Amino acid sequence: MTITNTPEYQLSVPQHLAISALLQECFPQYPSGRTHFRQLPQFRILATAEDGTLIGHIAVEHRMVNNAGQLLRVFGLADVCVSPDYRDKGLGANLLDYSTTLAQNTGIDALLLIAHEPEFYLKNDFLAVENECKWLFVQGDQTLGVLNRHIKGLMVKMLNGEPWRAGQLDLLGHIF
Ligand SMILES: CC(C)(COP(=O)(O)OP(=O)(O)OC[C@H]1O[C@@H](n2cnc3c(N)ncnc32)[C@H](O)[C@@H]1OP(=O)(O)O)[C@@H](O)C(=O)NCCC(=O)NCCS
């Protein structure tokens, strides 16, 4: 098994097809035939089995966010998934470790994500945080405005030694 990262614009058509199939398998409600929900990520972290099969995926948004006046350079993680046949063997944790190391080596302040079920991330050193959030509301391939709301399942891993702040989190764009 190997884990690599690839810029979005360099993904081949077969890679897009494999990502789309994995997303459909892991998130049955995912829009069919697509590899993004609202907007393209900057890059993907991909886990591949020895035979070349795609078995794990994270979409990564490289973004500035404003955490109560503290500007943070973040990796926003989305669509974290592992193929059902390969679960509970540590691959999900390996993908998060890979993201963390990549972020630490490139001056990223924090990892950020929104989880419906936080347990997996809590086990991997993410902190559940409660912030009022502001973000660009994109839905159905249209920009519909700006939302100000609490986001359930917001999780963070600070990497720069600074504390995460209570208060407003301005995502400075759409939600991950
Ligand atoms: C979540 C996911 C990526 C974990 O991948 P994985 O390779 O099985 O992860 P690991 O083997 O590193 O860790 C598995 C551990 O996480 C726990 N875990 C995974 N999903 C969980 C969930 N939804 N609720 C509670 N615990 C969960 C497992 O029980 C296991 O715990 P243990 O180590 O104490 O035995 C994988 O289950 C998956 O793709 N799920 C479907 C997509 C999804 O829900 N993604 C998260 C979106 S927020």
Automatic annotation (TrEMBL):
One of the record's GO molecular function terms: acyltransferase activity, transferring groups other than amino-acyl groups
Domain spans labelled N-acetyltransferase: 1-160
TM spans (from-to): none
SUPFAM superfamilies registered for this protein in UniProt: Acyl-CoA N-acyltransferases (Nat) (SSF55729)
Family annotation (InterPro entries): Acyl_CoA_acyltransferase (IPR016181), GNAT_dom (IPR000182)
UniProt-listed Pfam families: Acetyltransf_9
Name this protein carries in UniProt: GCN5-related N-acetyltransferase
Species in which this protein is naturally found: Haliscomenobacter hydrossis (strain ATCC 27775 / DSM 1100 / LMG 10767 / O)
